[in-house]
Amino acid sequence: MTEINHQILLVSRPEGEVEAANFKLVETPLAPLQDGEVRVRNHFLSLDPYMRGRMNESKSYASPQPLNEVMIGATVGRVVESKNTRYQVGDKVAGFFGWQEFGTSDGSALRKLDDTHIPLSAYLGVVGMPGVTAWYGLNRIIVPKAGETLAVSAASGAVGGVVGQLAKAKGCRVIGIAGGADKCRYVVEELGFDACIDYKQDNLHDDLKAAAPKGVDGYFENVGGPVLDAMLARMNAFGRIALCGMIAGYNGQPMPLKSPQLLLVSRLKLEGFIVSEHMEVWPEALAELGGLVAQKRLKYRESVAEGLASAPEAFMGLLKGRNFGKQIVKLV
Amino acid sequence: MTEINHQILLVSRPEGEVEAANFKLVETPLAPLQDGEVRVRNHFLSLDPYMRGRMNESKSYASPQPLNEVMIGATVGRVVESKNTRYQVGDKVAGFFGWQEFGTSDGSALRKLDDTHIPLSAYLGVVGMPGVTAWYGLNRIIVPKAGETLAVSAASGAVGGVVGQLAKAKGCRVIGIAGGADKCRYVVEELGFDACIDYKQDNLHDDLKAAAPKGVDGYFENVGGPVLDAMLARMNAFGRIALCGMIAGYNGQPMPLKSPQLLLVSRLKLEGFIVSEHMEVWPEALAELGGLVAQKRLKYRESVAEGLASAPEAFMGLLKGRNFGKQIVKLV
Q1: Which residues of B touch A274 (CB under 8 A)?
Q2: Which of B153, B253, B263 would best serve as a mutation to test chain A binding (most A beta carbons within 10 A)?
Q3: Which of A268, A271, A278 to mutate to test the interface with B (most CBs of B within 10 A)?
Q4: In chain A, fewer beta carbons within 10 Å around the N or the C end?
Q5: A225 and A108, same structural domain?
Q6: Among residues B227, B212, B241, which one has the least CA distance to residue B144?
Q7: Sign of dihedral through CA atoms A121, A122, A127, A128?
Q8: Are residues B267 and B325 in the same domain?
Q9: Domain region containing B11
């Protein structure tokens, strides 16, 4: 019996917003395993904002997702067949198999995972790329000091939630920005932020002034657009901005920065970064994050879409902020 | 006989462009010197873009220039009377006496100058604040490596000319941006830049592509506006931008940055700075710059306005780029 693999391909590039028609769900028979290969049943697929950039053909920091190929993405799963001595059936592994149910690998890009104290799906979030992203921007760019005020946008998201909790542990006053009362309540009551601003209330400038009366010393940016405009006006002298994402402009609409002169007036330092270019920090960051999760000192939330076929819709929701916490797709 | 001091006061704040009516030339009798005081006849007054910011009431990095007081500014001159044992008549000194012919001081904010090998006026330019500004932005923010491409705007100006020459000495390919064919010719032929783009030709994007075929690794920004937009699009991954001035917006007109997402896409590092906040580098920088000037290995050019009364006109010209090199006013 040949097993069937379900896969989702990118079949056209979005013009503006992503549409369901950009994707195609296909069935592909699994080829027999070759010597040295490992077959993984993916349990969870990670959906992340960076994927939107890869869907474009235009210049970005990475080569575009090719058309008519399986959409890229990080996955975690279980080895179901192995002709590779380093992997046994039953091993839990992280891979980068993309939007599909099964992955086949020569074993080189896999990483074994221990899910005794850390749920498998967390390796796609707080103990994975989003967590390390938070760790890097905070510890290598912002470098917050106790007593400083730190702000983070998309605060209830996979990255933002970690940024704020790590900063709280360092003795900062932490302000979140999120979309909607539910997310803001979660950010303050569950994650322990000092305040959270609902950007949908359209009162960013005054809300920020109230939440950060002494100004903002460090800002972790995930969204760009009007939020960044408002934040720049509130930054203290010598503030640091870690530029991690600008999801507000991912569909290609113009997103000018209103008052770039504030970067000079307040002598700010701003740095754009991509965590995959800083692999040297991953071991340290993952060890710290994994420890915190295992000790339940780092909280997180997941939005779980059920089944591969739900991935396009979930991804479109993520780009519109409809997710609540780390967006994943449960494949088994 | 009581000597008369001529002074220029700021009597109103500009709305938009600076006008002659914002200033007033007055005659003030010099008070007799008190014990411990020094009287300096100012020989040269420095005019610098930062003064425009001080003329506004709005938030900037420094307190505004008070109305009906002598306009601030750096000066160099000669001690003409002294009741302070640390200064003798004939000593050459740098001070911050502002737009006036004589300065009186308790000696605390003066610095003795040696004009044997370095012309007195150079202490207002290449061997003064503008020179150290160039040195700091280049060596502490951009940190260029041999073989990299560096660009600098206002390239024929007091700061830009030093930036480019120091970068050339470090083995960089250096691109200037300046206004007009004369300035560009000077930048290439006299200062030794590899290329210079005339932004008045309105072809920044293509000209920059031609001048920097491998992209730009370091950018020293003095102007902002469309030049910064064009430069961002040409920056290489991991490029560094020293944000020193944004003269294009000093009259308060909106000056949005078109595509801030390029800061993320190209993982740029941008830092705004004010050299007076980094006094720790001044001794090292001034020693290096003074040595280069004395050895005639660092070239510069001055625009000299004659007499105190010419200062307002010269300052308005500076803000419009009518100066060619460091703008000073000769007072004696």
Answers
A1: 267
A2: B263
A3: A271
A4: N
A5: no
A6: B241
A7: positive
A8: no
A9: 4-125+301-330
